UniProtKB/TrEMBL annotation:
Positions of the HD domain: 38-176
Name of the protein this chain belongs to: HD domain-containing protein
One Pfam short name: HD
Coiled coil: none
Highest taxon, organism lineage: Eukaryota
Transmembrane residue ranges: none
InterPro entries registered for this protein in UniProt: dGTPase-like, HD/PDEase_dom, HD_assoc_2, HD_domain
Amino acid sequence: MHNLLSLKFIDTEQFQRLRELKQLGFTNMVYPGAVHSRFEHSLGVYWLASQCVEKLKTYQGLELGINRFDIQTVKLAGLLHDVGHGPFSHLFEREFLPQVISGSDWSHEQMSVDMVDYIVDEHHIDVDPQMIRRVKEMILASSEYAPPRSSSEKSFLYDIVANGRNGIDVDKFDYLLRDCRACGLGCNFEFRRLLETMRVLDDEICYRAKDYLTIHKMFVTRADLYRTVYTHPKVKAIELMVVDALVHANSYLGISSNIHNPSEYWKLDDTIIKTIETTPNQELKEARELILRIRRRKLYQFCNEYPVPKDMLDNYKKVTAQDIVCSQKSGGVTLKEEDVAICNVKIDLTRGKHNPLESIHFFKDYESDEKFTIPDDRISHLLPTSYQDMIVKVYAKKPELVEAISEAFENFQLKTYGIKAQAHSTPQKKRRYNPFI
């Protein structure tokens, strides 16, 4: 019965759409193996959610009162948690929509919830309304828009798919392992160990104290993926170009026009790029040229980057193209804001500037019912004392402007921090543009 209900959702055009959404967007342009989709990720989270709740039922089922309704609810939440996701990984909601809709607060989690309702109605799926309500609450559990829960019982179930309490959830288990494997990277985080040894105390999933470093590895693996894969300089260059192309094409194609309408939104996927590329209309000329540049590897040129000094993070204000242009010294080529592209990249361990392990409770052994947190200094003095990086990346949209933008970027750092925060100068061969090379 459980599998039959899940298949009723899987075998819909709305869920099958996830096959057309690459999990990592354009990362495969740098890491060719990264072609996995939201579809397989969703199936993976479905399976891991099932494993997690089944293990809790096996070891603590009578004590916790876990029943078939709970198991199916958690499994459906895992299956459907990304059904409303936008194209190109998180680029759609974080980079594109804010440029075309002022003050946009659209989120893929909220659209996933709306899409669940639409699928149930459109395909006449016979499912308990209370189950669907709890599925939607679980999808939104880690979102800033999480609604009040319909029940205060069994709160630990809400931490399995999207954990707003401390960030340990099966969604991360799946994408960390899947992304590392697809990109050819090693992954020494062992999630199976956590699934086997976790335990619920006081309505919260807790972990053995000896697994502290295993959990720390999970957060570090995520941060490493952000630094080396998700925000790779070439990946970000391509994403900046795609955002510009989507912005140019939006008024003609209405890309953002149905973001609150599930009946039309589900038709939007990664193939919008092919639509732009092959539609001959004059209105899409600028967008087409940007896609053609990506195909021919004539990307925005990475000039340099720097990490914001640690003591400046609390009062950090996003760097803009205007900041760089205004830092240009007189003489030489005159820069314009449209010549410069900026990425303000935040990398953390899921809890901003705070240590995520401070929110996690541990237990000593299975004979003990006491849960507790573990301070860093009780584990190792080698663990980090800072849990967040803010990295500013600057790009030239035209290769002949690399030198001027690089110099303006250095001037901005000196003016803002009194030092050049970047690790090294922009290589001379990038500064000296030769159109014949």
